[in-house]
Amino acid sequence: MADVALRKAMPADRSELLRWLRDYGVYGGVVALLLFNIAFTEHFVSSENFRTQAIQVAPILIVALGMALAIGSEGVDLSVGSVMALSTSLLSLYMGYGIWVALFVVIIGGAAVGLVNGSLIAFIGVQPIVATLALMVGARGLALVLLPQLKDVHDPAMASLGSGDFAGIPYVVYIAAGLAVAVGFTVRRTTFGRQLLAIGDSRPAAKLAGLPVRRVLITVYVLSGILAAIAGFLATARLSASDPTALGDLMELSAITAVVVGGTPLSGGRVRIGGTVAGAVLIQLLTATLIKHDLPPSWTQIAQAVVIVLAVYVARERGKR
Q1: What one-character-per-residue DSSP string does 152-178 give?
Q2: Which member of 8, 50, 114, 272 has the greatest number of CB atoms within 10 A?
Q3: What is the per-residue pLDDT across 88-133, written as a single tens digit (0 to 9) for each?
C-alpha cells in the first residue's frame, strides 16, 4: 500500500516542480546569478556596474517585448536583429534633420518591416518562421546597402539619451520600463490583447468566432518591428556609432530566450510580460557573468541554447499533464 501511495505521489510532485519552474524558475535563476556574482565576481557590487548592466539589458528587453507578442500569437519574429541594423542605418542617414525626424524615420522603417512580415503571414499564409527569416536576411542586406560600414554619430541629444540619467537611473531604463508597462497593459486590459491570446490559443476557433485575425496578426508584427527599431535607436545612442554589420546580431536568440524562459509558451495563447522582463535580466546577467570570468562570447550562445531547451522541455512536460 505504501509503495502504491508513493508512486501516485511522485508524478504529482514532479508536476508541481515543473509548474514552479515554468512560472517562477526565471526569478530563481536571476537570484542565483546575482548571488554567484556577489560572491565570486570582483567589483560586481558597484553602482557603476549595476548602471552598465541596466543600460545593456534595455535593448534586449524592448526587443523581447515585441517577440513576446509574436510568440503569444503562435508565431515568432526572426527579423528583429536585422530591424535593429536597419534602424541604425536610417538613423545615420537622417540624423542631420534632427533627432526627432531620425526617430520618426526609424520607427517607420521598423513598422514597414513588420507590415511585410504580417502581410506574408496573414494574407498569403506563409509560416511565421519562414516569413520573418526572409526579412531577417532582406532587412540586414538593406541596412548594409544604406550604410556599408561603421559611422560615428555625433549629436549631443543622442549622447545624452545614451548615457544620461535622471535620479541616478539611465534614460534608456525609463524607456524600457515604460514600454514594458504599456505592452503589459495592452495584453491584459485591451480588446486587442484578448484577441491576440485567443488567436494564439486556436487560430481556427478565433476565425469561427469572427475575430479580426488578419488585422491582429499584422498589428502584432508591426509592433514587434517598431519595438526592435526603438531598441536599435537606443543601442546606437549608447554606442555613439551606427554599425549595421554588428548591431542586433543574434538579438533574436536573446529575445526568444528571454520570452520562453519567462514562461510564455511557444505554442501561443499566453504572454507573460513580467517573466519576459526577468528573462531579459537573466540573459544579460548570464552574458556578463561569462565575460567577467574570461569566457569567450561563444559560451554565451551555448548557454542560451541550453536555457532555451530546458525551458521548452519544462513547458512541454507541463503541457502533457
Answers
A1: E---HHHHHHHH-EETTEEHHHHHHHH
A2: 114
A3: 999 999 998 999 999 999 999 999 999 999 999 999 999 999 999 9
